[in-house]
Amino acid sequence: VFPSLAQAQASVANEVYRELGQPSVFLFCPTEYCSSLCSPSPSKSCYLLTLGQELLPGVSIIWTGPKVVSQELSATLLEEVEGVLRRRPVIWDNLYANDYDCRRVFLGPYTGRAPGLMPRLRGLLLNPNCELQANFIPIHTLGSWFQSELRSCAHPDHAGMESAAALGDRQGTQEGSYSPQEALELALLDWVAEINRQALEPGR
């Protein structure tokens, strides 16, 4: 019936989206959901080009970055993806995901995301550790990053002053910008307070 997988997927997604009354949040995860899965590249992928053309504008498209688990996200990459998809992507961030190797638990701060990404995003989802309690620091530091991004959006004259190369611990060199180390220290203070609070509860 359909000349390509992308056209089949777009047709079904559009039909479901309309049937549901075109909800404000409708997520579509493509088969090529990161750069390493695209052939030959995101901007030259016939599959992604077709999705960008065929999917209704209200349908949000999920993207994980350069890889399934991306150590870094840059504005340059997101510009390329936005261009081919004809919409800003929803980042499904697998930075902390450990479902592929449950022997590992990721407790570090949210990092490797260039400053000023928020205007390039339609949304951001964090795929956490499978262990519930291990996600206190990831979620807490994500909140600190988000607040920093909000401040940048509120002061556009300062947005984009830091280059995409200013990642990891190099973030936070400018006043008011996100510092992974500072975010980690704040998260640890709050986590210790939460642990102490739970320890005092009856029956603990």
From TrEMBL:
- PROSITE patterns listed in its UniProt record: GH84 (PS52009)
Name of protein: OGA GlcNAcase
Q: List, alphabetically, the SUPFAM superfamilies matched.
A: (Trans)glycosidases (SSF51445)
Q: Which Gene3D superfamilies match?
A: Glycosidases
- Write down the InterPro entries for this protein, in alphabetical order: GH, Glycosyl_Hydrolase_84, O-GlcNAcase_cat
GO BP, one annotated term: glycoprotein metabolic process
This entry's Gene Ontology molecular function terms read:
beta-N-acetylglucosaminidase activity
Protein's organism? Cepphus grylle
- Which Pfam families would you find in this protein's record? NAGidase
Q: Which residues form the GH84 domain?
A: 1-150
